[in-house]
Automatic annotation (TrEMBL):
Keyword Calcium: no
Composition-biased stretches (Basic and acidic residues): 65-74
UniProt protein name: Signal recognition particle receptor FtsY
Positions with biased composition (Low complexity): 79-91
Principal cellular location given in the protein's record: membrane
Domain of life the protein comes from: Bacteria
Keywords on record: Cell membrane, Cytoplasm, GTP-binding, Hydrolase, Membrane, Nucleotide-binding, Receptor, Transmembrane, Transmembrane helix
The keyword Cell membrane belongs to this UniProt entry's keyword annotation: yes
InterPro entries recorded: AAA+_ATPase, P-loop_NTPase, Signal_recog_particl_SRP54_hlx, SR_rcpt_FtsY, SRP/SRP_N, SRP54_GTPase_dom, SRP54_N_sf
Amino acid sequence: MLTPLLVPLLTDQALITIVVVIAVILVVGTTGLVVARRRRAELPGATKPPIEAAEPQVGDDAEEPRDTPTRTLEDAELPEAPAATLETPESAQGRLVRLRARLARSQGSLGKGLLALLSRDKLDEETWEDIETTLITADVGVGPTQELVEKLRTRMRVEGVGAAQAREILREELVALVDPSMDRTLNVTRKETQPAVVLVVGVNGTGKTTTVGKLARVLVAEDKHVVLGAADTFRAAAADQLQTWGERVGVRTVRGPEGGDPASIAFDSVKEGIAEEADVVLVDTAGRLHTKTGLMDELGKVKRVIEKSAEVDEVLLVIDATTGQNGLTQARVFAEVIDVTGLVLTKLDGTAKGGIVIAVQRELGVPVKLVGLGEGADDLAPFDPEQFVDALLD
Ligand code: GDP
């Protein structure tokens, strides 16, 4: 109101000064808001929304990814930061102690059955046949079963019979069969400028997404910065499921539209991992066993596209322990189409056929690195041959 009255009274110089002051106030105010917004995005515990990967276009060739506009934290719409209610995952050490009892419960009949047979006063042909049957029934596989029986026969003959000897000999031979010399370390160490990349593959329903979620917790418990890639775009709800796992421990999920191109999402998640300077990017994939060629094309493409920006350090194949020979056949197909570096055996709590550990390692020449022992969030443990065998014989 006063301004029109005052204007004629002001000199040109005074007017210029007022305009400059108003301009400075406006610029400072806007910059302050932007900085505050960025700071909020960087706050630990601030809820970070999933990044939608750009929808792949028809004719898009993920072999030569477009410079996909992965959105950065500054661009993402940021909701008000909620009070952080993040869970604290259990450490890997604690898990082994707790889950060993569960393993003993499910696999006890195999170990105890064998022990009872071997402790008999007289080890006749019928007893050896029963031992063989027990091993085959527990999915140990024909080759490893014959090998073990041969060794046990010789040692029991030479070292004498009796419950105590039988237990010791059986323990030693089972540990040897599970092979403690295999390297079971998970390659999840960040390189100088790149996160470690872990690709998780396997048939749908084996527990792949659950395993990725559980594994994220294992890594968070080790103070690692994790990014999840929801590249299983074929199973409805797989991305939601993964995102929920991530949110529970403050881990961000990169996802795309349902039915979108898995390779594009895998690429975006690794790009995001690099931008966030993450330690590990875990990529969940679709496990449609339509045809071997289809699977090979799909997984091969996902891997090649990731390798445009980072090395794939680990390819984990998830196998459902309750599916026995069928699971083994499926595992063989996956191993033929992609170089598997480690196995995850899920649902060992739901079967007495723990012999699959031996059979699948033998079949694929790849170590079991993790075992799933329940539906609980922390029911995934690193695999340890001695602990496993001890649990069988508990
Ligand atoms: P995906 O299709 O391979 O991604 O399978 P999901 O991760 O959705 O898992 C399928 C089902 O298996 C879910 O109900 C999981 O809770 C269950 N599951 C996964 N791992 C385990 C495990 O170690 N033990 C048990 N009992 N269930 C499991």
